[in-house]
Amino acid sequence: MNSHVEAVPEEEPASKRAFITLSVMLATIMQALDTTIANVALPHMKGTMSATQDQISWVLTSYIVASAIAMPLTGFVAARIGRKRLFLFSVVGFTFASVLCGAAQSLEQIILFRLLQGIFGASLVPLSQSVLLDTYPTEQHGSAMAMWGVGVMVGPILGPSLGGWLTEYYNWRWVFYINVPFGIMAWLGIAAYVKETKLDPDRRFDLFGFALLGIAIGSLQMFLDRGESLNWFSSLEVIIEASLAALTFYMFAVHMFTHRAPFLDPMMFKDRNYVVGLLFGFMIGVILLATMALLPPFLQNLMGYPVLDVGLLLTPRGFGTMTGMMIVGRLSGKVDLRYLVTIGLLLMIVSLWQMTKFSVDVTRWEIVWTGTVQGLGLGLVFVPLSTLTFSTLAPRYRNEGTALYSLVRNIGSSIGISLVTTYLSHRVQINHAVYAEHINHFNPALQDAVQKGVYDLSTTSGLVNLNNMVTKQASIFGYLQDFRFMMYVCIIMLPLLVLLRRPGASK
């Protein structure tokens, strides 16, 4: 097995802790914001770069794939060059790559610079989490994770509204330039206050293991990102990507448990809380961004809201998340964290259940309060879950443990978005076919609409209008079925709580 240096957190003065927390949170927000802020600017980039929809989607795909492949390297690189050096190098690289993205003049350039952004940004979130865990004593880990969680969860939630505002009033390039002040402040704070860790020069790099994991993650992300546009398994490219991902994941698992010095130390997986936390994190990832992928098109395409109004309607979800995290910060150490996770999951279930009742007549208030309740539930789940996951894990595993935790959550988000979008298109087709069966001369509602002049079935335009109405109703019901699917995911998570131990309950 790899040799490790045990990292025991030292007691830091409160003022120094505050500066460390602020600095790493800025880095976290910068990276988390970039996962969604560029989405709303894609149509404007498409026009500037004279690209097709399929071509411009690589702006997102390149970032996601590069970040996913580079993230598992965090533990090894931090052990060899030092966590602080890696942190500073990543902040500088991410900020500079953001400037290059904003200045890009062609599609090839922006895809290349987004690749660099993904590589440099991959380690920011796991490093910020491990720094905070080492900065605060064990009894304050709940509060530390609450502050860290604000950046991780609020960034993706506020990204679309901030990106829409910048694109509307300035230019799409500003969705990248906005990272510059965050990057400068984060670098100054980390350089001044974060301590360097001890190096582990004897740690060997398992190139074969990393290659297998990198190919597996890259193939999986490509499969998830390209599957919808290529009609999934009817495409040879998608079949190759799925097969390659399955084969290399299997080979990596066998290699990890049989090699003398594997890329990931399998001893981490002897910790029950950590393994259950990984599973929980994956499922939370499914919920976290899937709702944000569904609500904007639902509000814009079916409800007719402009993009800025959509951003404003979704913003309270972020405030609900921050409120939940502040509650966790105050209650940490005073109540069993598993109770907070239970309450959070129940709030998410209630919110999603209410969303299954949405219609074209849904009011702004209903959209706001269901989003706020869901955000509050996410805040109550995310932070205690992070604390419980690492409560019994040995400190020497924190760098690679946090990297794997972030990676699994990101993969969950990618799978979640692919699942809900594919399920939506599938259900819309089925719903349309079912509704169309009732469009006949024996339907009293249709007869009444024809008599009132709502539809003129003797003309082509009248038939088109009727078909558009059926498609709209089928789409609305498809979204509601997606919300119900996510509600079931939350219900499935509840029994997993019994597998989590309280901090200090196990050796």
UniProtKB/TrEMBL annotation:
It is found in: Cell membrane. Keywords: Cell membrane, Membrane, Transmembrane, Transmembrane helix, Transport. Its main location: membrane. The chain crosses the membrane at residues 18-38, 58-79, 86-105, 111-133, 145-166, 172-193, 205-224, 230-253, 274-295, 307-328, 337-355, 367-390, 402-424, 483-500. It comes from the Bacteria. Pfam families: MFS_1 (PF07690). InterPro entries: EmrB-like, MFS, MFS_dom, MFS_trans_sf. The keyword Transmembrane helix applies. Residues 20-507 form the Major facilitator superfamily (MFS) profile domain. PROSITE patterns: MFS. PANTHER family: MAJOR FACILITATOR SUPERFAMILY MULTIDRUG TRANSPORTER MFSC (PTHR42718). This is EmrB/QacA family drug resistance transporter. It comes from Vibrio diazotrophicus.
